[in-house]
Amino acid sequence: MTRVLQTERKEALSGSTRSAVVFLHGYGANAADLLGLADPLGEHLPDTLFIAPNAPEICNGIPMGFQWFPIPWIDESSEEESMRGMQAAVEDLNAFLDALMVDELPLRI
Asked: What are the DSSP calls for 17-76, one per residue?
C-alpha cells in the first residue's frame, strides 16, 4: 500500500498547465526547501506546474525534516530497513507520479 505524499506547489504562471517539474528533496529537508526554485524557473517556463512532495517519513533528529528512506551510516538503521524503505519510497513516488499525470497533466490531443 502506498502512502499519500503531502505536497507544496506553485501553479503555472500562464494559468494553463502543459508541463510539470517535480522537485525531490534530500534527507532531512522538506518540500518547501526546493519550491523557491519555481520563481526564477517559472519566468522561463510559464506553462509549467512546479510541485514538491514531502518524503513520507519524518527524519529523526531533524525538526521539520523528512526522509524517503533511512540511511544506515546517518541514522544507524540497518541495511534491511534502508532497502525496505527505499522500495516503499519507489512505490510511493510511482503512485504520486501516476496520479499527477492523470489529475494534472491529461494528454492533449
From this structure: --EEEE----TTB-HHHHHTTHHHHHTT-TTEEEEEEPPSEEPTTSTT-EESS--HHHH-
Q: Does residue 109 register a pLDDT over 60?
A: no
DSSP SS3 for 80: helix
Q: Give the pLDDT confidence of 35-80 residue by residue, as tens digits.
A: 999 999 999 999 999 999 999 999 988 888 999 999 999 999 999 9
Could you state, in order of their start, the residue ranges of all structural domains in the chain? 7-103
Q: Which CATH superfamily is domain 7-103 in?
A: Alpha/Beta hydrolase fold, catalytic domain (3.40.50.1820)
Min mean pLDDT across 40-44, 85-89, 103-107 is at 103-107
Q: Which residues of 62-89 are buried (b: 16+ CB within 10 A; e: fewer)?
A: eeebbbbbbbeeebebeeeebeebeebb
Residues 6 or more apart whose CB falls under 8 angstroms from that of 72 comprise 78, 79, 81, 82
